Amino acid sequence: MRTSTTPQSPAPTPLLDLQSLVVAVRRRRRLWSCAALLGLLLGVAVAVLMPPAPTAVTKVLVAHQEDQPNDPGTLIRTDAALLQTTRIAEEALGTLKSSEAPEDFLRDYSGLGLTNNLLQITVTGDSDADAEARAKALADAFVADHVRRMQQAADAEAKSLLDQRDRLQGELAQVNKAIGDGSEETGPKAAANLETLFARRAELTSRIADFAQRAAEARVGTPQLVARTQIVDDPRAVRHSLPKSAATNGVIGLVLGLVLGLAVAAVSTVVADRPVLRREIAAHLGASVVAELPLRSTWPWQRRRVRTARARLAASLARTVRGSAEPVSLLELGCARPASAIAVDLAREIAADGPVTVVDGLPGTQLRDRRTKPGDPAVVGGERVPALAPHERRIGVGSVAPGTAWTDLGYLGTQTVLVVRAGHGSAAWLHTVARQLADQRIPVIGVVLVDPDPRDRTDGTLWDGLDTALRGRSERPDRPNGAGAPHAVPAVGEGRRRAERQPMWAAGVPDSDQEAR
Question: Which positions fall inside the Polysaccharide chain length determinant N-terminal domain (predicted)?
């Protein structure tokens, strides 16, 4: 019975991985923490170095002839706008006997409608006394202008009503004259005309009295409005608390700096495209993450944890190296110092099996010039590799950073462990590293992730990528002794090891989408 399986299409890659973004932003906490701290300091500095100008506040009760209970505040907003006119500013400056331009004075005060009839005036000055004097003059000028406008409106209304009354009185005089002339006539027609004239005279008399009464009422209501328009809160200086102002500005600066820092960190993370999760680094390199190593910490309570992690990693790599006669290299990306330390620790672990030499292929001489301790392995440069004994174990340390001479990596080791710092290399460069190592027939045993995110819960094992992870190991042809690299091993042993390392594929089990024949 044959079993045919239908390959499942890979899941679509999201345009933006929110988990990776959150982890990358959290790893850049120095950036947004410094931005928040800078915002806090700037806010406090502004409060200390740029204190607010002396300010005075006064409140004016404003009465309107058109006041209605359901007024949405249009009238008081009109009063606040009228306060910001050069006419009122000029009158206030005239009271103060100041030569300041009204246009400049307009920038020193403002009006705010608290209710439909209560206007708050805020004025700044050179001192508290000057601010209070300015507020008093400005409030008096506004009240005088408001009273004048109400009186002008009342006078205009009364004059219009009196003009109407005078016109009707002239018409009444004509009607009275017509009645006097028609009283001498006799007959039914004359009687009808007189009756019409008498009705017209009564109507005109009533309308004249009404206009006279309305004119009187227009003048009578104005004094009440004038009396209600007054200053209800005398000008007083506003007291500013420096600690409170510094705290307020500091909190505002802290929030703005934090938001700006987070935004910059998020944007730079998306633009740089630097993987930080185990699953992403494993997928881009085509090799599984076999261990993690925190960075060297300056805190005393974390140094022991770092030493323990390094010792456990060295023991794990030693078991792998002992099982293979091929030289192993450690290739770093963004973590030269941890890679050097791992190489030395690994050499110490396997030193009991025989002589071990560390081949330094890192840029510079920091590994060779380091302070040695008793029992440390010998460290030589890459130029001394041909002089080493064939039976002597060696551990190469190199770099796969930009600018690497890829053809020289084979002299460091025919198989390698990548020591990669999380978030250091871009996705494109990780692809380049994986491709170049595959082209050089250097299989990747695994990836040691340095400085991983402590909250990363993703899996860095390539369950479905064994052929990619072990492509170099499973496809590397036999190397003749001395060809291609001075550290080749016998062909018989090479063939036996390749046979032992052939990947074993899991048997496919049909599911609901598979068809059994």
Answer: 16-93
Beta bridge partners of 293: 450
- Say if residues 414 and 487 touch (Cβ distance below 8 Å): yes
Q: What HEC string does 266-292 produce?
A: HHHHHHHCCCCCHHHHHHHHCCCEEEE
Nearest CA among 341, 334, 498, 358 for reference residue 418: 334
Q: Which residue has the higher pLDDT, 43 or 380?
A: 43
Instruction: Indicate the burial class of 452 (C-beta count within 10 angstroms; 0-12, 13-18, 19 or more).
Output: buried
Strands 289-293 and 328-333: unpaired
Q: Which residues pair with 102 in a beta bridge?
A: none
Q: Distance between CA 419 and CA 197 in Å, rounded? A: 118
CB 347 within 8 A of CB 396: no
The type of residue at 254 is L
The whole-model pTM stands at 0.60
Residue-by-residue DSSP string for 191-231 = HHHHHHHHHHHHHHHHHHHHHHHHHHHHHHHHHHHHHH-EE
Chain segment 441-486, per-residue pLDDT in tens: 999 988 999 988 888 888 877 765 444 444 334 444 444 433 334 3
Q: Do 278 and 460 meet the contact criterion of CB atoms below 8 Å apart? A: yes
pLDDT of residue 482: 38
**CB within 8 Å of 293: residues ≥ 6 apart:** 306, 309, 310, 313, 338, 342, 448, 449, 450, 451
The two tokens of residue 153 are: 């409106």
Strands (E), 294-349: 328-333
Q: CA angle, corner 394, sides to 393 and 396, nearest 5?
A: 160
Compute the distance between CA of residue 449 and CA of residue 248 in angstroms, rounded to an integer: 43
Would you call 185 exposed, middle or buried from its count of C-beta atoms within 10 A (0-12, 13-18, 19+)? exposed
Phi, psi (rounded to 5 degrees) for 288: -80, 150
At residue 119, the 3 state secondary structure works out as strand
For residues 442 and 440, what is the distance between their CA atoms, to the nearest angstrom?
5
Cα separation, 124 vs 127, in Å, equals: 8
Map out the domains of the chain with their CATH numbers: 17-51+242-272 (no CATH), 55-237 (no CATH), 278-500 (3.40.50)
Question: Cα separation of 232 and 345, whole Å?
Answer: 84
